[in-house]
Amino acid sequence: MNWIPWLIVLGLTWALVDNPLQPKAWREWRRTRREAHRQKEQGKRQRKGPTRYWLEFVGSMVLFLFFFRAMVVEAYRIPSGSMERTLLIGDFLLVNKFVYGMRTPDWIGIPFTRLGFDIPYAELPPIRKPAPGDIIVFRFPQDPLVNYIKRLVAGPGQTLSIVDKRPMVDGVEFAPLPHQQFAQHQVLPADFRDVLVWPWGSGWNKDQWGPVTVPAKGMSVELNPETWRLYRDAIEQEGHALSVKADGGYQIDGQLATRYTFQQDHYFMMGDNRDRSADSRYWGFVPEDLIVGKAWIIYFSFNGDKLDEEFWQVIRWSRLLRYIE
Prior knowledge:
single chain, 325 residues, alpha+beta, Umud Fragment, subunit A, 2 domains, 26% strand
């Protein structure tokens, strides 16, 4: 599959860049089109004046890039080793935002800052839903301005447990991946409690976790101490205010409640570098509205450990234009 991006690049280069391998008629047609476009743009500059022409040109390009990035494809850089050896620190990715359903921007502000505000958004129907095994970029539930990338292990309505480091989905082991790794060969026993593992107070650890059913849209749960501990964060992520009464009753948005029905699908994410990944084992589920898109292609990659060497040695040439699976 890794030859397909290269074939696309070569095909576009052949079609768009003048070269002796193109048919003469094709080259003449392209020259005619370029000349017609040049005359048209020259006419615009003369009518509008250079200042107005360039302001409109730059403004239209900025708007195009903004909406293209927001709705179709976005670039992403791997900042940590949680997905090694599948994805490496220094990989630069293109993220397909179209496959899970394009959406208009839901936030306007100053790039690379927290200065901005939410706006209403629209979303187109997805080509398909996120599926277990997909590598997904999503907004971190505890700070939606920060993007994370992990592999989807269990989807809505599926029951997940981790037994001796092995994820079990609906009682079947999640298929081992070619590049997944474990930094620690020791398996933590079931009676070892890790206070950092979510849900807090569960008594679980990263190697022995669950079982838990991932929330699905329309799934209804009875509110009791066990479900409250498991699903409280997911209910809050759906925009509700929660509280517990002195007599042990539960309130949602100030109203007494005995059950809750989820309004959207949720997902459980894990890194391929299982022992060195801050993932859903530590902070819970990812709601559907925080999913950005599916990791698609590595368009560039460099090795930060070789920055003092020649430029051509820094680039990981074998990873360029590689499909992400």
